[in-house]
Design brief:
Shape: elongated
Strand order of the largest sheet: 1-2-3-5-4
Order of helices and strands: HEEEHEEHHHHH
Largest sheet: 5 strands, antiparallel
Strand content: 15-25%
Radius of gyration: 25 Å
CATH class of the largest domain: Alpha Beta
Distance between the termini: 24 Å
Helix content: 40-55%
CATH architecture of the largest domain: 2-Layer Sandwich
CATH topology of the largest domain: Alpha-Beta Plaits
Length: 178
């Protein structure tokens, strides 16, 4: 159902021309499109000749599709179709359904920057943990630092809360959530 809603929304936003619909990044991407011919890149087909044969067998049963070529070496899926009878969004939805990619599409995507920041924090955590021989990790260092700053602010009776540290803390906390 979510796929259908996504396809309809994409069609509405793209003004019903196929130039706006690009597929789903990292799941099923439209690499090339001409009227009546589309080439998808489907990572789950890469190095999977059985899946390539499965998708080919399923799609060849549809009368609207003229030919189907699945390449397990490149993960490419080339489909020639009658564009008067079927559109590219429907073909994409069918391929997603046959390969069971609905759950993958419905997951919230994570940007490359988010992944890299998480990797940096994980490395910092490991480094601190190893350097202190297991006594502290990144979370305990940050917690201890903010506890110390809070106590210092109370004792000195200053209105002391550095915005830079707040931003770093919020960034760290944001990266902790999945």
């Amino acid at each position: 159902m979510h796929i259908l809603a996504g396809i309809i929304l994409t069609r509405l936003l793209s003004g019903n021309n196929n130039k706006g619909f690009k597929g789903f990044i990292g799941v099923i991407e439209i690499r090339h499109f001409l009227s009546g011919r589309v080439r998808f890149f489907v990572p789950v087909l890469k190095n999977e000749p059985e899946k390539c044969q499965q998708i080919k067998n399923h799609l060849e049963k549809a009368s609207q599709l003229k030919s189907v070529v699945a390449n397990p070496i490149t993960g490419s899926l080339l489909i020639e179709f009658d564009n008067e009878k079927i559109d590219i969004e429907t073909i994409t939805g069918v391929v997603v359904k046959i390969l069971g990619l609905e759950e993958t599409i419905s997951k919230t995507p994570k940007s490359l920057v988010t992944k890299e920041l998480k990797s940096i924090f994980k490395s910092m955590n490991t480094g601190i943990y190893e350097y202190t021989k297991g006594m502290m990790d990144l979370n305990s260092v940050i917690t201890t630092s903010f506890l110390s700053l809070g106590i210092y602010a109370l004792i000195s009776k200053r209105n002391f809360m550095p915005s830079g540290l707040s931003l770093l803390y919020w960034t760290y906390m944001n990266m902790q959530g999945d």
